[in-house]
Each structure stands twice: as C-alpha cells, then as structure tokens.
Design goal:
single chain; mainly alpha; 55% helix; binds heme C
C-alpha cells in the first residue's frame, strides 16, 4: 500500500512537470491573440519593414533575449509586461521557434 501511494505520488509529480514545461499549443493561442496582427500567421511580418521570423536571423537569439523583447517591447512593438504572464511569454517564445 505504501509503495502504491509513493508511486501515485511520483506519477503526479511527473505530470506536474509536464504541465510546467513549455507548451507550444498555449504559445500558439497567445500568438494568434496578441502577435498575429503585426507579425502574421506564418511570422511573415505585416508591417512595412518588419522582418519575417522565418527568413531573417531574428530568432537566432536565446530564449531570454526573445522573452525580453516581448516583455519590454521594441521600437513600435508594445511591451507586454503585465499583460502576459511569465508562462504566456515562455510559451509564445517556444511557439516562435516553430517558424524557423
Ligand atoms: C503592434 C504591432 C506588434 C505586435 C502586436 C507585436 N509585435 Fe513584435 N514587433 C513589432 C515590430 C514593429 C517589431 C520590430 C521592432 C524594431 O526592430 O524596431 C517587432 C519585433 C519583434 C521581435 C524581434 C524581431 C526583430 O526584428 O528584432 C520579436 C521576437 C517579436 N516582435 C515578437 C512578438 C511577439 C511574440 C508578439 C506577441 C506577444 C509581438 N511581437 C507582438 C510589432 C508588433
């Protein structure tokens, strides 16, 4: 019985880890809601002069650097600080990687 309780506990721990890891699907939801207007559904960039996520080296940055851009904004791009949770920002950066 004790073993069973311990193994259930371990399984629950493992599923909690899965929930806490980067979620590309949630990242997509954030992207579609908050980024697609300017960056386009395939990251092509809809504003004049905006670089495409898939053709330039925009994404050749660390996750930290990309998260900072989303948090602080850049040029015309608004800051999402306080609008998106840390999880949302982490997930949307994970989703950006799918454009490469
Ligand atoms: C109002 C339009 C707008 C929205 C909304 C927007 N962006 Fe941007 N984004 C821009 C512009 C314009 C730039 C280029 C800024 C510059 O280089 O001066 C940019 C730059 C970036 C860059 C860096 C690209 C580069 O050329 O260095 C990343 C990464 C990025 N945006 C991600 C996002 C994500 C993720 C979201 C959604 C959470 C988002 N953006 C929402 C307009 C927008």
């Amino acid at each position: 019985m004790k073993m069973l309780v311990i193994s259930v506990f371990i399984v629950l721990q493992m599923s909690a880890q899965v929930v806490l890891s980067n979620d590309v699907f949630k990242g997509r939801e954030v992207y579609v809601r908050d980024c697609v207007l300017c960056h386009g559904s395939s990251g092509e960039g809809r504003l004049p002069g905006l670089q495409s996520f898939n053709e330039s080296q925009v994404l050749y940055r660390t996750d930290e650097a990309l998260k900072k851009i989303v948090r602080d904004g850049k040029g015309v791009m608004p800051s999402f600080n306080g609008l998106l949770s840390d999880d949302d920002i982490r997930n949307v950066v994970t989703y950006l990687r799918t454009f490469l």
